[in-house]
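tokens incoming
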């Protein structure tokens, strides 16, 4: 459900945002305001939104994933916070794009 709303709000068509399996060019990373991002689980989600914000394409590579108690480092409380954080990031993206608000995560392009 979060993914569906995230795609609607950002205009992306990604099948997942959460495995963390990504490859980026140095030039792309230097363009993003990464210092404005969270120091927690939200960092990668905010970075993906910034990539979309600056007009870059994100290609997906399938990655087999297994979820089980011993493999996860996020508890229920933090996972709920993460889900709401993802929605907040996407909503901030949309409102900045409209432009209804200004955001440090999504600066206006010159």
């Amino acid at each position: 459900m979060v993914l569906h709303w995230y795609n609607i709000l950002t205009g992306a068509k990604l099948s997942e945002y959460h495995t963390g399996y990504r490859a980026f060019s140095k030039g792309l990373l230097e363009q993003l305001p990464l210092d404005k991002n969270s120091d927690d689980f939200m960092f990668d989600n905010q970075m993906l939104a910034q990539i979309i914000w600056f007009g870059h394409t994100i290609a997906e590579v399938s990655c087999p994933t297994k979820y089980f108690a011993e493999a996860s480092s996020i508890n229920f409380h933090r996972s709920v916070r993460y889900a709401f954080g993802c929605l907040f990031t996407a909503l901030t993206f949309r409102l900045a794009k409209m432009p209804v608000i200004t955001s440090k995560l999504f600066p206006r392009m010159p």
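note: The CA atoms of residues 17 and 48 lie 8 Å apart.
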